[in-house]
Amino acid sequence: MPTPPKRWPLKDRKIVKSLRRLAGEPGKVHATTRSMRDLAALRITIAGVCQAICDWIDADQQITETITRYDAEHVGEPAYELYPVLDDTDMFIKVTICERGSDQELLLVISAHRQEGGQRP
Predict the structure, then answer these.
(1) What angle do CA 78, 8, 11 make, to 5 degrees?
(2) Is 92 a domain residue?
(3) Do the Cβ atoms of 53 and 17 come closer than 8 Å?
(4) Which domain holds residue 68?
């Protein structure tokens, strides 16, 4: 049996709208400890990440869907990768939607760091 792809273009506009809505409300955005350390090293705030996500989606740039593999709490859950430019830095941002569809729905930044090698998929 062939191995399924590790990532694919996100086609579901409903998810894109949810990502945009949540990123537009920084109070509904949380981050893992690892991503907070990476952001602090770059002197980037969660509000900056939220703005970069909104700008990326508003520009109708591709979002890649994948499955979370390394964040223990969310292994096996859908995650979404974006590649915005933030403060003149090519970034890699991976997020997931927690508590989807509930009043406690939030966007979790799983990873946010400089794009390795400056190349986007």
Answers:
(1) 80
(2) yes
(3) no
(4) 11-118
d(CA 24, CA 42): 22
Please name every residue paired with 107 in a beta bridge, in sequence order, or none if there are none. 29, 97
CATH code for the domain of 58: 3.30.2310.40
Please, what's the b/e burial string for 23-58 (b: 16 or more CB within 10 A of its CB; e: otherwise)?
A: bbeeeebebbeebeebbeebebebebbbbbbbebbe
pTM of the entire structure?
0.86
* pLDDT single digits (tens) 74-115: 777 899 999 998 888 899 999 999 988 888 999 999 999 888
Q: Is residue 5 in some structural domain?
A: no
